[in-house]
Records
---
Amino acid sequence: MRRVYFVLPTLLFCLCGLGAFAQQPTPNTDFLGLLQIGSRLKDRPTFSLAIDQNATLKARQQALNDPEVQTALRELRDWLAKPLQLPPSLTITALAQDFPAVSASRQLARALMIQQYVQLANGKVHEAIDTTRDTLRLAYAVQNHSMTGFLVGVAVERIAVSNLSSHLDQLSIFDCNALMKLGQDWASTNKIFEFALLRESAIGLESLKQALGQQKEALKEAEDALKAMYAQIIQMNSQAYWDRVPLLFEAKGEALKIGETLVTSLRPAALRLLDASTRRIALARMLSCHAAIRRHRWENRELPATLAALDLKEMSLDPFTGQEFHYKVKGSTFTLESAGAFDRDDTGNLDRSSRSPFSLSGTSNP
């Protein structure tokens, strides 16, 4: 999947707040600020050792004691405190200029991950949840930028939950309530994919102008058809996963020739990105479910027999099926799993006989 994830932003580059995650209170359009903050972590031996998957607690504590790491974390939270004010469209120049800064957010997320791990180790679970929220806010910010940012943000979200998902049994009932709210806030950002796509669609339209030159009639037809295709992608993101239909590009003549080349190139990656958009909502809902299950155990001294007993409404529903997540109790333990997306071939067509199920605890650490 990682190989495919970078296809769409690259092709668009060449061819072409919700709720608690929204930042507060001075204007911010400066993604380059992330690059400056991230530069503090470059060539820091303590940080390099601490982000290793097998790093010890001592190594991570030493990283947090590093003045440059401390400054980076403070400046990052200052950056997150500013609201985003982004223009509705994106240019190739802006994408190229901001790309290093958007990419730097992964390193900054790893710095937050180090802090989260130490907080969990010290029993400061509620602080670790707050740090998880900050990491998800960082993801939300870069996802606003572009499709490139959306993909980087998805990776940042995985970083946010990778440690926490392994320590959920540390939750108090107070922590369970906080984590349920965090999952709900995260799930409410389901439209962010659409915003990023609309911003970057300007690059695809500009590419058509370059390809068709002075052919005004063909250009207008191709532009209308491409806009319709983008609208279809956005509509698909709002549809139930199982109701989505193949991408279409309706034009004729030279406009069809250019448009079909674009759609053939974009289609597989676009559909996989839609799957990724659905997957992040599944992760958010499962996070809330895990917290609700543990809250029920605190209150009743036993695990709930079914998810329906928790009355979580849509938060207990797998967005890939519309049914409840697969929940199974075995003694004093349980499993919670999403059915996952259908597998796809190289052209993006679905193989409805095969899925890729996943769980919250199976979230990898990029």
---
Amino acid sequence: MTKDVARIGVEVAVDRIRIIGIGEDGPAGLTPRALRLVEEAELLAGGERHLAFFPDHPAERLVIKSNLAEVAGRLAECLGRRRAVVLASGDPNFYGIARYLTGKLSRRRVEIVPNVSSMQLAFARVGLPWDDAWLASVHGRPVADVVEGVRRHPKVGLFTDDRHTPAAVARALLAAGVADRAAYVCENLGGADERVTETSLSRLAAGGADFSPLNVLILAGEAEPAAAGGTEPAAGLAGEPAAAAGGPVAAGTGGPVAAGTGGPVERAAALWGLGLPEGAFHQRKPRRGLITKTEVRVLSLARMNLRRDSIVWDIGAGTGAVGIEAARLAPEGRVYAIEKNAADMDNIRRNIARFGVGNMEAVQGVAPAGLEAFPDPDAVFIGGSGGRMEGILEEVCRRLRPGGRVVLNAATLENLAEADRLLRRRGWERDVTLVQIARSRPVAAGRGIEGGEELSLTRLASLDPVFIITAWRPGEGLPDDLFIEEGGR
């Protein structure tokens, strides 16, 4: 069975709404067909800047601001009756109005006529390919949503707005621990006042530069040492140097941010995958190893069944190691940690900054008190209960979202027995794994028989065993159970 899909080029006067992309060069940048569709429109909708390109157009005008519901309603009334055209910036289908209107009107009642995206123009002006870039927008969205994407990708393109300016974005990224890098601010692309400025995150964060609200921010490559001026036009491009003074300031702190954020540990962590080494974390008592061991941490995270957008609780967070790894695995989600010890809280905050996880927050408290302020979780890790296991599990089991997982680490038989008893009483399914780890350790060098060659020996040193308890509601079995039920062997 096939469905008829409207073909590009087939002219039907009133059966579809046309969304036409337009650049800063106005009508001159439109194709003959796009220009004819605009000229024939009986209702012309768009932002004030777009409508100003056609001052003498006889059509009824509909200014688009924050009135999208009204605009969609008016356009729906036009279907089958009047020729309606919506003007939108660049490619309306790329972080543009087309997503909203096709959702409201049906994509088969809308024809999209794209222009060159300002993102495409920005990379062209800078002279960089963009097929390997990570593209996102902070237009009307929090910068926190893009921190992990920026951290993980060496080449980034961002749409900004008049609130999330290049300077504000730079300050937020540096405050979240993103390393300094080269930056390009591309303004009014395609217009007579187009300008491309080459700078860096740290120099942008310093402020002093004034940019048009119509800009794209590109981040690519290592930042070069600052010259006497703060910013400068990209080579061969129009624009004047924008002055910058003072040192960069962390957002909301008033304190300085180092131009080259992070030392060797921070730079290595940005490239490290799952299983961050224990020695990379700030710890209260490193000799006693009060941190979830790397191997146990990795196995516990695997049991938590995290998605990119998971909401995670880390109860009894200690150094925050599990929460930090969870935040890296769920860059579009958020981790909420709670820890009772003030000294550990200080280390958690330092570790959050060290590993630059902008999607994790920690509070000091004694769970279950304090959990009521967290949103309902998709996964919960309990690294310590402080003798309040029953109250913690009662709150966790009540609020865990469907399909969620609870993972506990227990170092003693008594804690294992208590957790199993409480979960059994609630009728929850359980799985227990005993993790016994031995790591290689060098043995003091010695000489062989009769004073022969010096020997270099290695032994295995065992770590304390740990129980990993995984729990879930009945009927929401672990993937292994599901595969078996489907007949896999």
---
Amino acid sequence: MNKLQPIKQSGVFFLMTGFLLFGIAYHVVSATCTLKGDIDCSGKVTQTDLATLALSIGGSSTASDINKNGAVEIDDLLTLLSNFGKTEQTPVPTSTSVPTPALTAQPTATVTPSVSGSDPSFVCLENAGPLQVITGFYNSGKFEPATANNKKFDARKASFEIPSSISHQMVSLRGSNMDSMCWAGGYITSSTSWHDLNISWNESKHGYDNEGSNRGTMENTTSATSYGNKMTWTGLHVFNVHDGLRTSNSKDNWKIQHSWFDYIRDDCIENDHIYSGEVYDTLFDGCYSGLSVRPSAGSNDYAKGSVIKFDKVLLRMEPMPYPYKWDSKSDPTLKVSGYGETPFGFGNVFKMENGIEPDFEITNSVFLLEYDAKKELFPPQDKVRVCKNNTLIWLGNPADAPTYLTSEFPGCFTIITDKTQGKALWKNKVADWHKRHPDVGAHRKPSVPGEYKWPRY
């Protein structure tokens, strides 16, 4: 005899007697339900199921044969007890009245990321068009990705360091189809192994060229350039390069916005082919020269009838060591205690060629100058189509302040010559800019935005 048989029989008798005493009704059903032990398919394993199975032990009831081995045994009872009190989880029904469309695989290049938060710098990534996400650190050569119309480059997690072995741009966007592209984010700087903070303008301009004559004979570095029309640059942080960004090859309405340029050793923007463009809500916190729209000597390769717009621009001119031809020109320079005879100076706020200047619209912008460098401060009167709500912070001798601007451009400028007031205003404006652009240079923010120190070394 099976040693478990007396236990089985006594257990069955106890269960049968208990349920009969409590008057539990039972019935046998032939349905099979999802939840093991739910013999009557009520959606829950209850005492009724237990009584039904108890009276079926030893028989061949299909409904009570939970484990489907051809007989109702104690193992079926144990399975039921393990699920006793459990409720069947009913799935949420799917409507059948509306057919589900077939899914079509989408190419990765057209998937756009979700741009969250209040920082407006990367909104262009939500636009339609192919997408390339760029991550990592690049310092061995030019970055030259494939281009396409309406393409977006998400470089928020990328950084670039310009080595001594290349000339001109570190990021080069050039191809057969490249209209209306957008580059968003990224950090671009120069290797201090050859472009340290204390080098002269000439050393910043010239350098080695190990990639052949087609690369040029000078470093003449810049963070990036595009050869496409309607190019947008947004959310960049650029530090310690020769030219901040080169738009000379971006025809037809380039745009620089929501970007931070810091310690730029020559032109913060080089646009020497004089194409129309717009600079919006951008911080230039240390320029040797502001905007260049001066073609190479004798060149006729420049656009006519162009318009350049500045709106919500913050631009600080910073004296830098050994300015352009400091040893042969008579431009005013500054000496700084502790730096010996090192001359410091800067160039033009607007670098132009007389007679071929573009038209300008300059609004809601702030310019800061440390001293009177005897340079071009503003475009000619007949080239400024719109000018309003701008501020010039003059930290040099108040007697040298360019007060003529207020008469030549009525309603265009407020000039501040009080140093304390001027520095406080600049600090507030820069702090506000960084607050509104938390993700631009997020890990390189100044400890106190708006407070600056020069020399930088």
